Structure formats: C-alpha cells, structure tokens
Amino acid sequence: MTDISKAGTFKLGDRTVKRLGYGAMQLAGPGVFGPPKDRDAALAVLREAIASGVDHIDTSDFYGPHVTNQIIREALHPYPAGLTIVTKVSARRGADASWLPAMSPKELTEAVHDNLRNLGLDVIEVVNLRSMHGIHGPAEGSLEPQLNTLAELQRQGLIRHIGMSNVTSTQIAQGRSITDIVCVQNQYNIAHRDDDALIDVLAADGIAYVPFFPLGGFTPLQSDTLANVARKLGATPMQVALAWLLRRAPNILLIPGTSSVGHLRENLAAAELELPADALAVLNGIADEKAAA
C-alpha cells in the first residue's frame, strides 16, 4: 500500500493533515447531480481512502445536492479520530442541474445547517465561502456580508474555521480583515497557473492552498509533454500532474476526486513519485505551451 505520508503534511486550521486528501464531488451522479450509478462503489471509495491514510475530505451539500454528504455519513460515520471534513457554501442547484448563487445570509445559514445534518456533525471543521460573483472563475465583488455571516456562525460554535474559494487576491485580503482565513480553494493545475503568485504569498503566511480541478476537472488534462514525462517515469500522466503540484509549494493540499477504487489508488501513489530536475523543468513549461496554443 502507498505511504501517503511521504507527501508530507500541512496545517489546515489548527489541525495538521496529510497533503494528499480526497475530493468527494465525483461521488454524485453525472454532472454532480443526483445519485451515483453505483452507491456501493461510492461507499467503497470512501472507505478505501480512509484505509489508505487519507485524513482530509472535501465536500459540499450542493454536490447532488445532499448526495455526497449523505454517502460520506453512511460510509464513515462515526468518523475516525483526526478526519478533517471541509465543505463549501454559497451555491444551490437548479432542477435542471444548473449552478445558482445562494449567497444571502439566510441561504448561507441554511446551507451550514444542511451540511451539519447530512454529515451528522455538531460542528464543521472548515467551511469555504465560494464566491459566486463569477460562476466559472474568480470575479471581483465584495464578500463582506457573506463572511460576516460565516463569522457569526463560527461564534455560535457551528464552524471552527473559515476558508474561501473561487476568489481574487483582493477578496482574500477582505476576508482576512474580517476573520482568520485558513485555506484558499481555487482552480489550479500544471496547465492552469493563474494563481502562481498568490500561492507563494499564502505559503509565506502559512495558509493552505487547495487546488480544485488538480487534474483538469470535467475536461481532463491533455498534454503530449505530460504524457511523455509520465512514460519515461513509468507513471500515469495524472500521477505526474499530482506529483508536480506536491512539488510546487509546501502549502498545497490535494483533493483529487474519483468514483473508482482503482483510480483512487493510482492518485494516492503520486505521494511516492519522485520528479527528477530535468522532468520538472519540462513540466514547468506546460502552462507556456497552453498559453501559446
């Protein structure tokens, strides 16, 4: 079995977690909507993740909606000591599976209570506020009312820590002026590197950076360069992409998602993959290739 502790650890709030975690989004049905095709397989993936040493699971009650949290509870409750569950709020799903803003104080409060109920928790370790000013990427706009709402729920003891997602540097600064921000979750991977400077700033301040779509998301990473490096290393392209992220900065926490036990094991094996300097230099150029294409 892979020793995922070889990827190291980082602080997430007041806990120290292994840098390779698991993202639960793919446990829902197609388009992250409705139930999975195979619920038993979804349960098995979660149990395998825990058996493999994963101690950080990322989820949201708007996955499904409600589906992934209910599966997590069925698979793992009562939760193992030391398991950190992180969720996010501020969106809801339309009947047509669309992603809609749900950023009012009432909606955010209801979302936190929905997460607590469906996960079977009395308090959530980390709640990320996902900005919906831009649905498909960060867009400027104040998040003060939303952050104040979460800070009040934190004072009530329902949330331990607050993070931010799909946000700009300006919004992060605003968040840090209102409350402690323990993590930022934005899109980032070997080909999509808009947050390079932000990652380094957060690393200097001890704040975790959690890339979503670390493997490209709904359109998986496609790169001849990545495939060639993987072939030379005897690894899969996705393992190389994850190993690159682990090398990129010490504050990066990974939450690759999958609904397959086999793929889960492949992803976790990235913890033991060494990237020689020449391979790293080649991989660092992939973002430039994408920009030039």
Top keywords for this entry?
alpha/beta, seven-stranded parallel β-sheet, 16% strand, 293 residues, globular, 11 helices
What value does the average pLDDT take?
96
Overall shape: it is globular
- % residues in beta strands: 15-25%
| Poorly predicted parts | none
Query: What integer value in Å does the Rg equal?
Result: 18 Å
Assembly status: single chain
Please identify the structural class as seen in this structure: alpha/beta
Helix proportion:
25-40%
Strand order of the largest sheet: 3-4-5-8-9-10-11
Order of helices and strands: EEEHEHEEEHEHEHEHEHHHHH
The main sheet comes to: 7 strands, parallel
Task: Give the number of DSSP strands.
Answer: 11
What is the rounded distance between the termini? Answer: 39 Å
Instruction: Work out the helix count.
Output: 11
Briefly, what is this?
With 293 residues, the chain is α/β, with parallel strands linked by helices. The chain contains 11 helices and 11 strands.
Structure description:
By secondary structure, this protein is α/β, with parallel strands linked by helices. It is 39% helix and 16% strand. The strands form 3 sheets. The chain has a 7-stranded parallel beta sheet, covered by helices on one side. The chain has a two-stranded antiparallel sheet with strand order 1-2. Strands 6-7 form a two-stranded antiparallel ribbon. Helix 1 (39-51) links the parallel strand 3 and strand 4. The longest helix has 15 residues, at 105-119.
